[in-house]
Specification:
The strands form four sheets. The chain has a six-stranded antiparallel sheet. The longest helix has about 35 residues. Helix content is about 20%, strand content about 40%. The N and C termini lie far apart (about 90 Å). The chain has a domain of about 140 residues: Immunoglobulin-like (Sandwich), CATH 2.60.40. The protein has about 210 residues and is α+β, with helices and mostly antiparallel strands. The radius of gyration is 35 Å and the shape is globular.
Amino acid sequence: MVEGRVLAACFVIAAAVAAAGSSCGGSDEEDATNGPTTPAVSTTTEPTTTAGGGIDPLEGAGTEPVSATATGERIALLERVALGRHEGYDRVVFQFQNALPGYRIEYVEPPLYEDGSGDPVDVEGSAFLLVRMEPASGFDLETGEGQLVYEGPRRIGGAQAGTSTVREVVRTGDFEAVLSWVVGVGDRVDFRVLTLDRPLRLVVDLRNH
C-alpha cells in the first residue's frame, strides 16, 4: 500500500518535471522567432558633419584669401552673373565667354570704393567679400569700337534670388582689365572657390547655415 503511494507520488513529480521542460523549450523557440534581429551593417561612408550634427557640403572652406593666376593672356569676357541658394550654401557664379581670369577673393573692410573713379559704393551686408578678377572685363575692346558683353545689372539683390547668407552682389570696378565685384554677406562665413568648364565659370560658395 505504502509502496503504491510512493510510486504514484514519483509518477506525479516526473510528469511535472517533464511539463516544465516542455514549457521552457517553447519559450526559447518563441524568443528565437520573435526576438529583435541584428541591424544590417551599412558600407556607405558617412558624410562630413558640422559641430551641430548637420551635413557640411563645403569641405575645405574657410575665411582666408584664395587666389590663382590666369593660365593665358586673353582678357576673360564676363557675360553673366548668377546668384542662388543651395542646401548648405549660397552660390555666386561669374560666367565667362572665352577664358577664365586669375583671381583673388578675400574679405575686406569698408568703406568700399569703385575702381578708377574712387567713388564710394554702398553694399548691403555686415561682411564684404571682394572678388577681384584679372585680366577680365565685361567689355570687349578688341572688336572695332568695342562691344558690351555683360549686359546684366551691376547690383543683384539676395532677396530676389532667395539667398539666406548673401545680401547683395555689386560690381565695384571694370577698369584696365581688372574686374571687381563685392559680395555683401550677413556674417563673415566660410567660403570656397571653384572653377568649372562648359561654360567657363568662377564659382564662390558661401556657407548659409
